Amino acid sequence: MTFYALTFALLGVGLYGLLAKRNMLKKVLGLVILEYAVNLLLVAVGYRAGRGAPILQPGEDPAAFVAGSVDPLPQVLVLTSIVIGLGATMLLMAMVLRLHQRYGTLDVDRMDRLKG
Amino acid sequence: MDAILIGLAAFLVLGSVAALEMKHLLSAVITVGIVGMGLSILFLLLGAPDIAITQVVVEVIVVTVMIRATTRTADEEPGPPRSLATVVAGVGAVLVLVGVGVAAFAALPRFGAARPMPSDWYLAQASTATGGANVVTAILLDFRGYDTLGEATVILVAIAGALLVARHVRGDGEAGGGRRPPPPAAKPPASGSEAAGA
């Protein structure tokens, strides 16, 4: 339970960075932390204490393998999520650099002021 | 074992707070890199070596790109801090979310407790049905291959979008003082033809 609570705390830290920071790079960092937290939560749900990675060793008994490995399905989906998160972060960074070039600042509030 | 997991998770939380509250952007990016590496160790301890490897690779790429962006956009003095109402509203929203999440997960089985899994079938069938010893990659590339195809499509679209948006970013790289969008100092129309010719 403590572990789940800490994961949710990490999620809260990321969301705080996304909401309350003015610097856009800090906002991106907040989003990256948010992704960390979600991925960690999903893997933690698939975790079984005392069991190993879902990789079959040579000569291992199949029945013992099924009983002795953690849930592989969340791991698969998290693997997908990490790679897609990388793509989304790259797109965001491109937008941040473009906005910095356009407005000469990373500060969201200053960008708002330059509009008028 | 539990103590190590909880200690690492606490390290991640503290490191994230430190990264977000740091004044220096480069230090913040590097701190997030450290947090990502800690997360990778945590994945390894949770029995997910494939995710740990992927996390390291992704972390290196993200930190490299962000350091590049940081050095390009450095030297901006921070504006006045956000108003108290904004910060209170943000922290309040976060606390509500975290509270609801913790309460919801309190109703689920304990962390790490043994319980039946729907993916026992995958574990039992993977080696005979696909010939792969690693069940995670067997599911990723075989049982759920279309899912991975969709993932590759999303990556392709994201990278194409990033290239399209970043196409013009390199433009004024050498101009140290070019902070505003219309930086050309010389406005007279006479210099226009010169610039076009050059």
List the helices and strands and how they pair.
The complex is a heterodimer of chains A (116) and B (198).
Chain A: H1 2-20, H2 24-45, H3 62-67, H4 72-103, H5 108-114
Helix pairs in contact in A: 1-2, 2-4
Chain B: H1 2-21, H2 25-45, H3 49-72, H4 84-106, H5 120-130, H6 135-143, H7 145-166, H8 190-197
Helix pairs in contact in B: 1-2, 2-3, 5-6, 6-7
Output the helix-strand order of chain A. Answer: HHHHH
Number of helices of chain A: 5
Helix share bin of chain A: over 70%
Q: Largest sheet of chain B at a glance?
A: none
Q: State the end-to-end CA separation of chain A.
A: 50 Å
Q: If classified by CATH, what would the architecture of chain A be?
A: Orthogonal Bundle
Approximately how much beta-strand content do the residues of chain B carry? under 5%
Q: Which blocks of ≥5 consecutive residues of chain B have pLDDT under 50?
A: 172-180, 186-198
| Radius of gyration of chain B over all CA atoms, rounded | 24 Å
Structure described in brief:
The complex is a heterodimer of chains A (116) and B (198). Chain A is mostly helical and 116 residues long. Chain A has helices at residues 2-20, 24-45, 62-67, 72-103, 108-114.
Structure description:
The complex is a heterodimer of chains A (116) and B (198). Chain A has helices at 2-20, 24-45, 62-67, 72-103, 108-114. With 116 residues, chain A is an all-alpha fold. Chain A has one domain (2-50, 64-114): Helix Hairpins, CATH 1.10.287. The longest helix of chain A has 32 residues, at 72-103. The N and C termini of chain A lie far apart (50 Å). In chain A, 56% of the residues are buried. The model of chain A has no long low-confidence stretch (mean pLDDT 88). Chain B has 198 residues and is an all-alpha fold. Among the domains of chain B are: 1-73; 119-168, no CATH class. In chain B, 70% of the residues lie in helices and 0% in strands. In chain B, helix 1 (2-21) packs antiparallel against helix 2, helix 2 runs antiparallel to helix 3 (49-72) and helix 5 (120-130) packs across helix 6 (135-143). The model of chain B is unreliable at 172-180 and 186-198 (pLDDT under 50).
